[in-house]
Batch of 2 targets.
Target 1
Amino acid sequence: MEIYLPIAEMSVHWLVIVGLGGAIGFLSGLLGVGGGFLLTPLLIFAGIPSPIAVATTASHITASSMSGAIAQWRKRAIDLKMAAIMTLGGIAGSIMGVWLFGVLSRAGQMDLMVSISYVILLGTIGGLMLNESVRTLLAARRGAAAPARRSGQHLWIHGLPFKTRFRASGLYISVIPPLGVGVAVGVLSSILGVGGGFVIVPAMIYLLRMPTNVVMGTSLVQIIFVNALTTVLQAVDNHAVDAMLALLLIVGGVVGAQFGVRVASRLRGEQLRLLLALLVLAVAVRLLFGLVARPHDLYSVMVGGT
Amino acid sequence: MRRLAVLTVLVAGLALPASAGENLVAGLSQDSIEITSSYNGTSIVVFGALERPGDDARPDIVVVVRGPEDDMRVRRKSRVAGIWINSDRAILHAMPAYYFVASARPLGQIASTPTLRRYGLGLAAVQPRAVTATGDPEPFRKALIRHQLHAGLYTETASGVQFLSGTLFRVRVTLPAAAPRGKYVAEIYLLRDGAVVDARTSELSIDQTGLERRLFDFAQFDPLGYGVSTVLMAVLLGWLSSLAFRRME
């Protein structure tokens, strides 16, 4: 049955959207990422105009992160102070991002910016993850233990001022790096419609050196706030949030996530990371192809606007 | 300009009923279309009859349906450093968002180009009211028409007018889901020997109704409330799912 989307002003088959939300929810439960970086391009492939795909994805991420964060809260695996500082940065980043989104939309370069940013981000992160998971798998095959991360290493980060203690993470570091990561994720989530989990998680582990057990919960809390704000700002500034589309996606997503979590418990960590890396790289290659291949029609049309 | 032409014909038709000798009656199967949650485009029928038809060759009927006008931005991509980016653009002001024209034989055989232009018959006669462009706007106009044809928003058919008898005719007009909300005008022209001898117009409206309408108005007139509500919906569904999940464990 076709469902009419009142803001996108087009009709879609409800099963396609619920299925898409479900598949992304499954991956998000399986791999521990929000899945926005896959959902937005898939919605665009499905014919949803890119501003609406970007803006509506933020509400889907809010729902799936909420569900995940509650589970983490029960395990007490959240560093609230870290989350609060990152959220502050995230709010500033979101406001900048939504403003930039409007400027780029009006200049007609929105699609280009979204595609290029995705190719760079997904290509880099996918490549790094692939490299790391293949190495771990090979090392495991040779029977050697994966090299343990050296702790207590002195990075440039430790020279920064405004140091404070993060009790839950057992860290004594400057507030500038978490604030900066927050800003970056805020900008990303409003321009690209991504929750930022695939950026914030590696940043917390490798840059801030947070213990892995508090990383997921802390990033989820930050992601909920930033994406909730992004949804509201997108609705106010760009009228681009389609509540009907959001509802279909969320219903599929929350069900899919439950199945994902169950399957994840039966797979090994390196296998999961390898899967995610391949998936991320596949999306990057597809988008890169779209940028360099000669388009069917060199002309594109936009109705109305200012 | 075009409206004026229609009006002129109508006034002339009223003033000179005897000399014209031919008359047109026409109507639409529906005068309003309501978009509901299961809306996936629709079609309407324009039907009509010729009164006191001449006993010589059958006259020509041309049916035009126009949607609301809007400014269209057309952008052209060109290759910069290996990637395709939007470089040139043109704004075509007040182009119809929907345009349908049907006849029983090619328009070029029915009337001369100036006549077709004057009444806005045929895709070649779909012209913007004004253009904002740096170079030649014609490729941009052609690209727009190509785009709209592909989307089913523009149609030109030389077999769309079906005569059911010597005097009765009907035309099926397809409106895709992407046809925007607003006021549509159907114009029915009677031509003989390349000249318009009678014309009728009917109005049609497409609008959202029910929940869709309320959502659209909510998003438009209270965007803050709309955004906050969407977030609350997301948070609530996320929370409910985690509750349900825990119960199943």
Target 2
Amino acid sequence: MLRHIKNALFPFALVLAAFTGPFVLEPFDLVNLSAFSAMAIAALGLAFVWGTLGILNLGHSVFFGVGAYAYAITVSTFGDSTLAVLIGTMLPIVFSLVLGSCLFFSRLGDVYLGVITLCVTLIFYSFMTSTADPWFHIGPVPLGGFNGITAIPSLNVPGDPQAFLSTEATFSICLLALAGAYILLSLVRSSDAGRIMTAIRENELRSELLGYDIRFYKLLGFALSAAIAGFGGTLYTAVMGFVSPNVFDLPQASQFVLWVIAGGLGTFVGPVVASFAFQLLSCQLGANQVFNTELIFGATIVLFVLLAPQGLQPMIVRMANLKLTYRSGIFRRKEKPA
Amino acid sequence: MDQFVILCFAVVNSIALLALISLGLAVIFGMMRVINFAHGEFIMLGGYATVIANHAGVNLWLSMFVVSPMVVGLIGAVAERLIIRRLYGHLVTTMLATWGLSLFLIGAVTAIFGNTTLGVSAPLGNITIGAYSIGAYQLFLIAVTALLVVCSLLALHWTKYGLIARAAMQNAEMAATLGVDCDRVYATTFIIGAATSGLAGALLAPISGVLPHMGAAYVARAFVTVISGGGALITGFLSAATILGPVEALLSYFATPVVGQASLLLLAVIILRLFPTGVSSLWTGGR
């Protein structure tokens, strides 16, 4: 019972923030935080596919980007954002199924998988930057090459393209969506399929010998993470109002990975907190222009890998547990490090 | 006829380019099973070393063949000592650490030299074939690449160090029992790999110019080449380059360079679908 309450605490805090935020915060902060939570949603997708299923997907941003572009094109063509969000979530699923069936059915190892997925996102990047010619267009929307697509309409009331949502409402929706994604992924993780996925992460061969089709479960998890990432991408584009090929580039891809490592692989709260923290940091750094963002990020990744390979959340949890057992005088046998 | 010659040249050039940019990576990955994500940045640093040495008045050939490999080898040594050595055997962790290193190096170079393209002019003039003319430097590049590959094959199979390195690669524990200092072998290998990447960057600097982000342009292709090559160290990536290079060259010629690069990736995915451990599993028996 206590565990359930503990688990519900984080989404509850998000929901609380979604409703109180508009009354306390400035519009500028609201827009920023909406964008941050859209990014955090995508990071949750990676936290799931990597932390629960053990698939190191370095090209997670490709699904984010596909979702973002799909939203931009659909909403600019038809005007209704609900349909656009739906398409922006579905298209990455389709793409992940195609890509995933190539990857998982050839039984690629984790490293090979990471490299291939990273290559895919880089190919998208170079393709999208080369679409400056007006010949590249989908419907009435030119892809715009390096500049991307601009002046994208934001979210509107479902069915009424003219009734745009206010900054406050968009903020609430983004945070609620983040809480929703968190709850959905937590439920999936504790479901039967989720347990099998965890088993696959722990030992692929053993799970297969027990009769589970690991390729199917990997494909399933991959598609789910793609959907979450694409959804995050649609919200991000809706908030920012533009999308450029930079969603496919290397820094973007590395951000998601950084947040998941920093927050703690295998956890969900950690990556979300880390994504907010790092985005705030990079926002500050970008505003100051004192330090180079890549320099800081690179150094942070190296330090995390060397010093806290398990990430912040497990580290903090372990420290808290240590203190607790110390106080109550219970000496447990030290667990073997993973 | 002239066009055919030019096309053949483009194909050979593309194979040589792939081989050149992946040689350093192949050495490090093949010997140590370390995926070095900072590979593209080693290339970039090699290019910068050449350009800066050249602007400072050092002879171009000297800065290419001496300064760049030394500078990048040194940086590689430091990186190996501080980061890679602590993570041997942890494939994924090493990959992430080197990724961090790659971002760090990009950031550092941007902060020091600025986000602009520097360059040196390509030496050696042009050669005219019928109505076309090609840079003699590109021919030189092909020759140097061939020489490098032959040298590394010879070094691996005919020298004492090559023997020790191959032993450490096949069975580190057994090699250690026989008195080989594996850590040292790994460190040397990493430095040689880094120096080779630096040389590659130096050789490419006159034709492409140098930019903090230039590594990203090469790293994807280098990885795809090495990984679809598979376990056999030199022959693996060489055969992968021979398969992938022509496809990229021809499609770049008849369509656009982007189509060429995309088809290279696609072909690599198909190759890995057919041979999950690389092309060289055909003759190494899937090791």
